């Protein structure tokens, strides 16, 4: 009886530890780590903000534009809250910044209260600007298209602590690569497309935070990599 029990425990132990050992072998070493691509290195800093010290510099920012009708972007903003903000708010220097037109303050406050039903939004800043300021910031980003007539978009952007826009210089699927499809990138993320936010944006942010964690430990130098990413993107 005792021998049978020991044999059973031994087999269970092997079944438990084998997957752990397998994962350890697969775990990538730091020198093989690939950072999140730089798609643009000329993002305009937030300036001239009355009673607001919000800055891109020194922070990892998720930036979105709700324009003159913030409530029309409720779905975009709620998806961003549930799928990105809630997941990454514990990371150092993480923030979300929402830009709206000056005349939209009433609607912007209503939108903020919708989100406040779920969280205190400690790391989420709502900023109003005039249309020229918003357009200038948007123009400094690499984007898929223009802002709409209300100075809003469903696209959101990742800006790192050095005012570099992050994304993917090559967003092709394995199937695309097999078919030798021309290279296309990903410079922003559509917050209406839940799968894109859950899979691509969430994964890209995880990679970016891993990069910053390695930088703090002194194990990472991305300067040459960034130059290569930008040159590759310009060629595309």
Provide structural commentary:
Helices cover 43% and strands 17% of the residues. The protein has 7 helices and 7 strands; from the N terminus they run αββαβαβαββαβαα. The protein is α/β, with parallel strands linked by helices and 236 residues long. The chain is globular. Mean pLDDT is 83; it is low at 26-32 and 223-236. The protein has helices at residues 2-26, 74-88, 105-116, 131-139, 174-178, 194-216, 223-235; strands at residues 37-40, 60-67, 94-101, 124-129, 152-159, 165-167, 189-190. Strands 1, 2, 3, 4, 5, 6 and 7 form a 7-stranded mixed sheet that branches.
What integer value in Å does the Rg equal?
A: 22 Å
Global structural class: alpha/beta
The number of helical elements comes to 7
The overall pLDDT, averaged over residues, is: 83
Question: Could you give the topology of this structure?
Answer:
Elements: H1 2-26, E1 37-40, E2 60-67, H2 74-88, E3 94-101, H3 105-116, E4 124-129, H4 131-139, E5 152-159, E6 165-167, H5 174-178, E7 189-190, H6 194-216, H7 223-235
Parallel strand pairs: 2-3, 3-4
Antiparallel strand pairs: 1-6, 2-5, 5-6, 5-7
Helix pairs in contact: 2-6
Summed up:
With 236 residues, the protein is an alpha/beta fold. The protein is built from seven helices and seven strands; from the N terminus they run H-E-E-H-E-H-E-H-E-E-H-E-H-H.
Features:
single chain, 236 residues, alpha/beta, Glutaredoxin, 7-stranded mixed β-sheet, 7 helices, 7 strands, disordered C terminus
